[in-house]
Amino acid sequence: QKEVEQNSGPLSVPEGAIASLNCTYSDRVSQSFFWYRQYSGKSPELIMSIYSNGDKEDGRFTAQLNKASQYVSLLIRDSQPSDSATYLCAVNRDNYGQNFVFGPGTRLSVLP
Amino acid sequence: EAGVTQFPSHSVIEKGQTVTLRCDPISGHDNLYWYRRVMGKEIKFLLHFVKESKQDESGMPNNRFLAERTGGTYSTLKVQPAELEDSGVYFCASSHEQGAEKLFFGSGTQLSVL
Question: Largest CB tally within 10 Å, which of A19, B39, B78, B85?
Answer without folding.
Answer: A19
